[in-house]
C-alpha cells in the first residue's frame, strides 16, 4: 500500500471506530470465559468424572488425558499451558500469512468466527463430559490469538505513528467496557438463575455461550467497517521469496531476529524481564477465580463481582500509571509495579476464607497494577526497538510471550498436584515477579534507547536519569 493510498484510511475516524469494535467483541471471550467461568466449572465437571464425592470442593483425584493422569483441580491450568505452547508455534506462521495478504480484516474475522464456533462447544460441557470442554477451550484460545495478529497489524494501516497511542488506547478502553458489560449481564444470569428458570450449571453454560455469540456478532462491525482498507491497497504486500514455504519463511525471519538480538543487549534485557513478570500477571489473573472458588470458598457472585471490579479498575490503573510515568518515568513505574505484584501475591496467600472485604481489596490492587504494568510495558518496549524494525520486533515480542506464558499456569497446576492446596500454588508465583524485577534492575534505559536509535552511548549513563517518557 502506498503512502498516498493509505492516507484516507489513516485520517478516517469512522474506520478507526470500526477497528475499536473488535476489542469490544473479543474481550468478552477473554473475560467471561477464560478469566471467570471456565476454570471453576471445568474443575467441577472433571471432578465429577474423577469420582470426587463433592465436585464443588477442591478435587485432587485424576482424570486421564492421552495416558496422562492429571488432577481434576489442575486440568484448566494444563489446558491453558498447552494452548499457549501451541500458539507459540502457530502465531509466527499466521504472522507471515497476514503480511503476505492484502486482506487482513478477512483473516481477523475468519479466525474470530472459527474461534467462536469452537467456543460454542463449551455449551455441551456438562455432567462428566469434560473432554469436549478441553477440546473447545484449546482451539478457541488458539484461534483468538490468531485473530489478534491481524487485528494488531491493521493498526498500522489506520493510524499514523504519532496517533497510534490514542487509537490503540481507545480500542483497549472499548475492550474493558465490552468485556465488563457482558460480564455484568452474566453475573445477573448466574446469580438469578432460579428467576430465569435455569439451574446453576445451565446458567454458567448459557453465559459461556453468550460470550462466543457476542464475539462472533460484534466482529461483523469491524469486518464491514474496514472494507475501505482493501480498496486502499493499490500495491501488493511484501512477500517472501517464491521458493520459501510459509513455515520456513516465518521461522526463518524469527531466527534472524533472534540472532541479531545480542546487538541490542538492553532490548533483550527488558524482553527477558517482561517475560517473567508478565507470566506472573497472566497466571494471577487466570487463577484468581479458581483460587477464590476452590480455596477460599467464595460463591460465583463474589468471584464475578470481583473480576468485574478488576475489569474497570484496570482502566483507571492504566491512567494512574500513565501519570506516574509522566512524572517519574516508565522504567521506575514498572519497577514499582513489580514490587506491588509481590505484595499482592503475599496478601493473597494469607487471605482468610469466606472474608469478602479483604478479597475485594486485593482485587482492587490487582486491577490498579495490572492495568498500569500492561499499559506501560508495550509503550516502554517500543523505545527499545531498532528504528524501522517495529513490526519485526513486536512479532518477536508476541511470539515469545505466547511461548513462555505457560510456565506460570504449569507451575500453578504442578504445585497443586503435589500439595493438594492452592495456597502454595499462589505463593510459587512470586518467583516470576522477583525474577522480573531483578532483571529490570539490570536495564540501562539511556543506553537501550541510544542503541535502538543507532546513536553513540554515553559512558556511565545513569538509567535513573532517563527522561520521564522513558
UniProtKB/TrEMBL annotation:
It comes from the Bacteria. The chain crosses the membrane at residues 21-43, 78-98, 110-126, 132-159, 171-191, 203-223, 261-277, 297-321, 333-351, 357-381, 393-416, 422-440. It is found in: Endomembrane system. It is a multi-pass membrane protein. Keywords: Membrane, Transmembrane, Transmembrane helix, Transport. This is MFS transporter. The lineage of its organism: Bacteria, Bacillati, Actinomycetota, Actinomycetes, Propionibacteriales.
Amino acid at each position: 500500500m502506498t503512502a498516498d493510498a493509505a492516507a484516507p484510511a489513516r485520517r478516517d475516524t469512522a474506520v478507526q471506530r470500526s477497528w475499536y469494535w473488535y476489542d469490544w467483541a473479543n474481550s468478552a471471550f477473554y473475560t467471561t470465559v477464560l478469566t471467570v467461568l471456565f476454570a471453576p466449572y471445568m474443575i467441577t465437571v472433571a471432578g465429577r468424572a474423577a469420582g470426587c464425592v463433592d465436585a464443588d470442593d477442591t478435587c485432587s483425584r485424576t482424570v486421564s488425558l492421552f495416558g496422562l493422569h492429571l488432577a481434576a483441580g489442575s486440568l484448566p491450568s494444563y489446558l491453558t499451558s498447552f494452548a499457549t505452547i501451541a500458539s507459540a508455534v502457530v502465531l509466527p506462521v499466521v504472522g507471515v500469512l497476514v503480511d503476505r495478504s492484502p486482506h487482513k480484516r478477512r483473516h481477523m474475522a475468519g479466525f474470530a468466527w472459527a474461534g467462536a464456533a469452537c467456543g460454542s462447544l463449551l455449551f455441551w460441557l456438562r455432567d462428566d463430559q469434560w473432554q469436549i470442554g478441553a477440546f473447545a477451550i484449546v482451539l478457541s484460545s488458539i484461534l483468538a490469538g490468531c485473530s489478534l495478529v491481524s487485528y494488531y497489524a491493521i493498526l498500522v494501516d489506520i493510524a499514523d505513528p504519532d496517533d497510534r497511542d490514542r487509537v490503540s488506547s481507545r480500542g483497549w478502553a472499548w475492550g474493558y467496557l465490552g468485556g465488563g458489560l457482558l460480564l455484568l449481564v452474566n453475573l445477573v444470569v448466574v446469580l438469578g438463575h432460579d428467576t430465569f428458570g435455569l439451574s446453576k450449571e445451565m446458567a454458567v453454560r448459557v453465559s459461556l455461550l453468550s460470550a462466543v455469540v457476542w464475539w462472533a456478532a460484534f466482529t461483523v462491525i469491524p469486518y464491514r467497517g474496514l472494507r475501505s482498507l482493501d480498496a486502499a491497497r493499490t500495491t501488493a504486500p511484501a512477500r517472501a521469496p517464491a521458493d520459501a514455504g510459509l513455515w520456513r519463511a516465518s521461522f526463518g525471519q524469527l531466527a534472524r531476529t533472534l540472532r541479531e538480538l545480542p546487538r541490542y543487549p538492553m532490548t533483550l534485557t527488558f524482553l527477558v524481564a517482561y517475560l517473567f513478570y508478565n507470566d506472573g500477571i497472566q497466571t494471577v489473573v487466570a487463577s484468581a477465580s479458581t483460587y477464590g472458588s476452590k480455596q477460599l470458598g467464595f460463591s460465583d457472585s463474589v468471584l464475578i463481582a470481583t473480576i468485574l471490579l478488576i475489569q474497570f479498575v484496570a482502566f483507571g490503573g492504566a491512567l494512574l500509571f500513565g501519570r506516574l510515568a509522566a512524572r517519574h518515568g516508565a522504567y521506575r513505574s514498572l519497577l514499582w509495579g513489580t514490587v506491588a505484584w509481590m505484595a499482592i501475591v503475599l496478601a493473597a496467600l494469607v487471605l482468610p476464607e469466606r472474608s469478602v472485604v479483604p478479597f475485594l481489596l486485593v482485587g482492587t490492587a490487582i486491577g490498579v497494577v495490572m492495568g498500569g504494568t500492561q499499559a506501560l510495558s508495550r509503550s516502554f518496549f517500543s523505545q527499545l526497538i531498532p528504528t524501522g524494525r517495529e513490526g519485526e520486533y513486536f512479532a518477536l515480542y508476541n511470539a515469545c510471550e505466547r511461548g513462555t506464558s505457560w510456565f506460570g499456569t504449569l507451575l500453578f497446576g504442578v504445585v497443586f498436584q503435589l500439595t493438594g492446596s492452592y495456597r502454595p500454588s499462589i505463593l510459587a508465583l512470586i518467583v516470576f515477579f522477583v525474577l522480573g524485577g531483578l532483571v529490570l534492575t539490570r536495564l540501562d534505559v539511556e543506553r537501550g534507547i541510544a542503541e535502538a536509535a543507532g546513536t553513540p552511548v554515553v559512558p556511565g549513563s545513569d538509567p535513573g536519569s532517563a527522561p520521564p517518557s522513558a
